[in-house]
Specification:
This protein is α+β, with helices and mostly antiparallel strands. It contains 13 helices and 19 strands. β12 and β13 form a beta hairpin. α3 runs antiparallel to α4. 40% of the residues are buried.
Amino acid sequence: MLTLKTLRDDPKAVIEKLKIKNFDAQPIVDKVLELDVRRRSLQTESDALLAQQKQKAAEIGGLMKQGLRDAAEAAKAEVAVLKARSAELLARMDEAAAELDSQLVLMPNCGLVKPGKGAEDNEIVKTGGPEVKLPEGALPHWDLARKYDIIDFDLGVKITGAGFPVYKGKGARLQRALINFFLDQNTAAGYREVEPPVMVNRDSGFGTGQLPDKEGQMYHAEVDDLYMVPTAEVPVTNIFRDVILGEGQIPQRLTAYTPCFRREAGSYGKDVRGLNRLHQFDKVEIVRVEKPEDSYRALDEMVAHVESLVNKLGLQYRILRLCGGDLSFTSAITYDFELWSAAQGRWLEISSVSNFETFQANRLHLRYRDAEGKIQLAHTLNGSSLALPRVVAALLEDNQTPDGIVIPEILRPYTGFDRID
């Protein structure tokens, strides 16, 4: 969340920076500054009334000592009026402060990237992996899943609905293998594994920026006012909500596996076929909490780590730096990883690695104590490492042969088999 101080100091700069995200901040900035003036004016008036109350209270004591009871009672009546007026002012101050905060949370993080309208303007910064050469008659993953009876989309529709597939046999074991492989790779790279809840409260959703921005995309258990997690980023980052980390407690590096739940309202067509877009899917996440001066080095390390996972799986990929128009509400900068699906003839996003700078930390009240003892806002970062559905899609499609689907060698100790046939 952008701070009020940032808007006070240079509102024009904020408006210009948010234009990079194609966001018109002018009306909100004007409203926030107007509410801030009103709140401070009320505060000044309230302080003056409080001073009057103190002065009258002192007078009452003197009048009572002099035996001037009637005058003292009159002064008490004046104090009662002042207190009532103070209570009214405090209520109006609280109302202005609440309205101010409700406006602040509507503004996205400022992007540190190039302008652009959408995905077509993203910058390709790197490509890698072997070129995919499919055999004649190659099939997309949804046909492969049916052929080898490893993923049942129709059964998922029967049990729950579209976007909730059932993994079977070697398909289920491949899921478990990938989860364990990613977690092992992450812990070997210095991330501590945690297993968080897959439901979070409203404060947690607000802390990482999903609420109120993405409320319509989250599954909500209304009776308990709990949300199914759209990503492990939410519960893991909220471990540090309302925390002040000591000098020796930062950086923090965590990894977690969770199922993820997204309504994906408005998705349709080829983008939702098979594993391309699901309502429930598995994902392994990495989260970091860093000092501001270290966060961009950490971002580079996270990008390199995710790239190493894709390389170990032997998949063709590219890395994109997102433009302002494709950047998420909370992110200052994001790198996306995409895999090439030769069977579908398109790129499939499998990971986003982002630096949120202080945006989430401000909402979370996540701070650290520096070497001089001063309390500062931390920087938060997260990345998929990796999201399973499209990784599985690429693994099935890219490794198909006339004799079955070959499992990458690095996964075989986890799957217990080298081929799906």
